[in-house]
Description:
Number of helices: 18
Distance between the termini: 53 Å
Order of helices and strands: HHHEHHHEHEEEEEEHEHHHHHHHHHH
Largest sheet: 7 strands, antiparallel
Number of domains: 3
CATH architecture of the largest domain: Alpha-Beta Complex
Strand content: 5-15%
Helix content: 40-55%
CATH topology of the largest domain: Cathepsin B, Chain A
Structural class: alpha+beta
Radius of gyration: 23 Å
CATH superfamily of the largest domain: Cysteine proteinases
Shape: globular
Amino acid sequence: MRKRFFIIVTLLSVATIISYALILSPTFQEKIGWRLNSWIIRARVWLNPPQEVVFSSEPIGTPDPDALPSPNVDSEQTGEDAPIEILRPTATFAPIPETFELVRGEYFSQHNRWNYCGPANIAMQLSMWGWEGTHDDAARAIKPYKLDKNVMPYEMAAFADQQPGLGALVRVGGNLDTLKRLIAAGYPVVVEKGPQFRDISFHITWMGHYQLFNGYNDREEFFIAQDSYIQADYEQPYETLISEWRSFNYTYLVVFPETQKNDVLNLIGDNADVNQNYKNALKKAQDEIYQLTDVDRFFAIFNYGTNLVNLRDYEGAADAYDQAFALYDDLPEGISVPYRILWYQTGPFFAYYYTGRYTDVIKLATENSIEMVRDDEPALEESYYWRGMAKIAVGDKQGGVEDFSTCLEYHPGFDSCIEELNKQGVYP
């Protein structure tokens, strides 16, 4: 009996050692491990589909664009609740060629790395200005945790600003003419958009993606894209871009030599002024609400809320997001829903937090972001930050500290979480 027990314990120990050796073996992971992991994720998605999670706990009925709030700037900016004055662009620009292509720099693929389109695209954009780093160099700065689900545009711009002699700017509400005008003047542009790609669970689904443009062709209506996911010199149709770009408020990022900043500002007209840029984008979103249906209309209302957040009209933004989420939950079956949207865009957290809706922040950060991850790596530092902020606001100090600490596990050095921990007397 004792001999049999000894044999069983020995076999279990050997099996455990072999299992750990395989798990830690790069060769095993490269050839077999990732396949096993992908099947586990597929099973989790099948058993608990993230796209079936709703956003609105209390339906507000059919969204009505006429019920959206008239935008107001906050009293701290103007001293009174004055309507936002939206000025239409009046600048005239020199004609540009019908086709144009900049000589591209280094091409970086995001494959064989995890969520790498941010590092790959900023590295490609910088390389066109003589930068000699790689996408891995960029990732060490803007994506220090390798499984981070997203890199924000402001993080990419900040990294570009840190490079000697270079600067960067991010704007929203872009259009095809602005992109072409910048490219024709010598400035490659990165856009943030939401295409339908096959994810790690082998489902075709909406997700965030960056794309670098270094040329265009008006005759055949496409941009020349250095697409880190698809291929170099990819022909991106104008029409498809507009549809995909809408889901990120038509955001674009330009990098330039510091000495040429004024040239870039002149090329974007009155969008050079950040506040006016948000006002222009707000008007664009408002127009689209009346023109679009289904998921495109959801994005338009969501963008309306995001632009109000940027203009610090948090009450109006919260109302807009309420309508957007109600529309999301009522979308027809068969539509690929953007369930990952809070992984990439944090406007609702701002709006609900600054209107005192802390439980809504906690709910959204938990149910519609962190718990939607099916690979056991909810590397979403912004979601943990906002949930921590809301927990502190409702008196849950321990929960807030835990979330800020988790935030730093997934993004070491994330300043906002360090600052909030310091306020609670914790010094990581």
